[in-house]
Amino acid sequence: MRIEIRTRELKNGNRTIYLDYYDKGKRWYEYPKLYLVPDSAPHAKDLNKNAMDKAIAIRARRLLGETPEEDGSPLKEADKILVSAWMDEYAKAMHANAGLSLTYLKHFDTLIRMVNDYLAHIKSPRLTMDCIGREFYRGFLHYMADVYKCRTSDGGTRRLAKSTMHLFQLKMNTMLNQAAREGVIKCNPYHLLSRDERIKKPTDQRDFLTREELHRLMEVETRSTTTKMAFLFSCFTGLRYSDLKQLKWGNIEKSQSGMVIRIEAMKKTEKPVTVPLGTNAMAWLPERGDKTLDDFVFDLGTCGGCNAVLKNMAKRAGINKRVSFHTGRHSFATLTLAATNDIATVSRLLGHTSVATTQIYAEVLMEDKIAAVNKLNGIF
């Protein structure tokens, strides 16, 4: 038998101490009514040491064979834990891990809210972990695909994209695999679903603009000049909308080799990136005027509003592609990769954490090359 001493935060700020038992695939808990007070409380050090010493003594007696019933300590079987309560504990453990990025944690926080919404939707907010099975998982996937709507930046709502649903399915598996390892559930019910019931990863379609299309877009006149300039600046720097919106004049510096953008932490990855500014990029920088280093370079509206402008511009330029702000980043990646054939350098310019992510652009270029060669078929 394995017995671990654990704590759980209470609403009043204290932490309750409990024993976590695991034996032959079964897990249960013992709550000896011992508590830790916040460090700021009077005599906290002595009180907490006394409580923890008692917990250690109880654990030692249990390992020697003394049963909890002899001192009246309550036991709670793991399979009777509320799903919502277990997810809260899982989220706290995740947030305590300093090695996880805010984006990674945000995905789990969103998933947990979705699961709680689903529990409310099926009128089972107090569902327990022993009810997590194939039907629960299948129902959640249907709810995510057909019922759930996320909020958009302009205050509206929309259904989740297939790629987003696939991402949350992966996060759900991570969470339920942990529950299975803890013995709280017998297995991750995802493995009980048929292939047709699972959400398949969509084919990665990354539209980018060719040099000729970029020139056509440059010629389009629009009253939304800031959106146009920011998008074309993205095409020559690879910066995301989120980073452009937060870009300040203080991020633009003069180095020994020329002007560069230095961002200490990108919005999505929280990783630093340095991007040299070529003449094409500099051409789409607005006039600084009397702006300070703390002023934003581009006064952008919502991402949805900017994308609507770009969609209209692309239509007027005769570009039959789905153009959004992220198309600028894709265009920078593919055009730079085509010009340099240096995937490692392009990966660093984009701030990718892995070259494997950048490899997708190389595959897109190869598909275009194959399509071009195939056009020769039947000519001779």
UniProtKB/TrEMBL annotation:
Residues 204-374 form the Tyr recombinase domain. CDD domains: INTN1_C_like. SUPFAM superfamilies: DNA breaking-rejoining enzymes (SSF56349). It holds the Pfam family Phage_int_SAM_5. Keywords: DNA recombination, DNA-binding. InterPro entries: Arm-DNA-bind_5, DNA_brk_join_enz, Integrase-like_cat_sf, Integrase_catalytic, Integrase_recombinase_N, SAM-like_dom, Tyrosine_recombinase_XerCD. GO terms for molecular function: DNA binding. GO terms for biological process: DNA integration; DNA recombination. Belongs to the 'phage' integrase family. This is Phage integrase family protein. It comes from Bacteroides fragilis str. 3998T(B)3. The lineage of its organism: Bacteria, Pseudomonadati, Bacteroidota, Bacteroidia, Bacteroidales.
